[in-house]
Design a protein that fits this description.
Layout: H1 17-27, E1 51-55, E2 57-58, H2 69-73, E3 77-78, H3 81-93, E4 98-102, E5 117-120, E6 123-126, H4 129-137, E7 142-145, H5 158-162, E8 169-171, H6 179-185, H7 191-204, E9 209-216, H8 223-236, E10 240-245, H9 263-286, E11 292-299, E12 302-305, E13 316-317, E14 329-337, E15 342-346
Parallel strand pairs: 1-4, 4-7, 8-9, 9-10, 13-15
Antiparallel strand pairs: 2-3, 5-6, 11-12, 11-14, 12-13, 14-15
Bound molecules: iron/sulfur cluster.
Length: about 350
């Protein structure tokens, strides 16, 4: 088009407002606005320069009985995919090396807009988790998924993890394993299916790290149901796990359920749960001794592997004798593991 019509300055796709504005401003500088011109293009970021949270939606269509988020934030509202991708691109251009995708329910992205087709750089793109991950994976940085609800659509992103397009990391809160408790929580209630899916994900992507959270002492939870949860934990061999003793949040439906578990029992179950998991996590970390891990540097001698999200997972410690900047990628030969972290030296 431009070779036939040299006076055409740019060609964009339909509805690509950002693309049009970029083309306009490439030829006509933006008018000076003293209030906004000092703000960097990526906005004000509270995280270190090399990683950033990317919020893709607000609100949630689920009604888990222990949670009041839907009553505060309303139903799911997905951000337009073009806008999300533009923000991601701006962040990467500004030096971000790791994008952490967040929402209340990442797997539901686009459900509210019926997976509407949006546009990024003039190209059509469906508002859906898989397409979003695929597009984010093309930016050449680490992409990590958080708060993925355990729905079958998760299966679609596993091949992207297996092929290295996005990090083989799933933060997927299972909350419990007893079908009756899951039903009382209003969560998907089929632990055997979850176990089968975890096995299938690992078969398709052996490097997969699974982080999850659980609640111990939910109203009505019997000792037998709690032990079922421990059994699930031993079977599932999850990599990173958090467990909360049930805490009655004001306004949550679960507070109306009968047979509340006494506070000391809730706490005691949480501790037992974490003891079981400590053994699993430390065996998982030990299995990495002797391997070489790609690590993103957070500070001199401290980084994170693909299995470690900032602030919630472990760290990789190695020799500080380098002049690398935060956000650099290095290979670290793992020599030692403790309960949470790995230790090694630059490979
Ligand atoms: S726990 Fe998560 S999925 Fe459930 S209602 Fe709250 S925000 Fe939604």
């Amino acid at each position: 088009m431009q070779s036939a019509h040299p006076s055409v300055l740019a060609v964009t796709g339909p509805h690509d407002t950002d693309g049009v504005m970029r083309a306009v401003h490439a030829h006509l500088p933006k008018p000076h606005d003293p209030f906004v011109d000092l703000i960097p293009e990526i906005g004000i970021k509270l995280t270190p320069r090399h990683y950033a949270y990317l919020k893709i939606s607000e609100g949630c269509n689920h009604r888990c009985t222990f949670c009041i988020i839907p009553s505060m934030r309303g139903d799911l509202v997905s951000r337009p995919i073009g806008e999300v991708m533009q923000e991601a691109e701006n962040l990467v251009r500004a030096g971000v090396k790791e994008l952490l995708v967040i929402s209340q329910d990442t797997s539901a992205y686009g459900v509210d807009v019926k997976y509407r087709t949006g546009f990024w750089n003039g190209k059509p793109l469906k508002t859906r988790m898989k397409e979003l991950c695929d597009a984010l994976g093309s930016l050449g940085v680490w992409v990590r998924l958080h708060y993925v609800y355990p729905y079958p659509s998760v299966d679609d992103v596993i091949p992207l993890m297996a092929s290295g397009k996005i990090l083989p990391y799933l933060d997927i809160p299972f909350q419990h394993a007893s079908p009756r408790i899951l039903k009382l929580m209003k969560r998907p209630a089929a632990a055997e299916k979850v176990l089968a899916r975890v096995r299938a994900w690992r078969a398709a992507c052996p490097a997969l790290t699974i982080r999850s959270t659980f609640i111990a002492g939910f109203p009505g939870e019997t000792e037998e149901e709690f032990e079922m949860l421990l059994g699930f934990l031993k079977e599932a061999q999850l990599d990173r796990v958090g467990c909360f003793a049930y805490s009655p949040v004001d306004g949550a439906k679960a507070n109306e359920l009968p047979d509340a578990v006494p506070e000391e029992v809730r706490e005691e179950r949480r501790k037992r749960f974490m003891q079981v998991q400590a053994g699993i996590s430390s065996a998982k970390l030990k299995s990495k001794i002797g391997t070489t891990q790609k690590v993103i540097l957070d500070a001199p001698g401290i980084g994170r592997s693909a299995a470690d999200a900032p602030e919630i997972d472990g760290l990789v410690y190695f020799d500080k004798s380098h002049k690398l900047k935060a956000g650099s990628f290095v290979d670290v030969r793992i020599e030692r593991a403790d309960e949470h972290d790995l230790h090694g030296r630059l490979a």
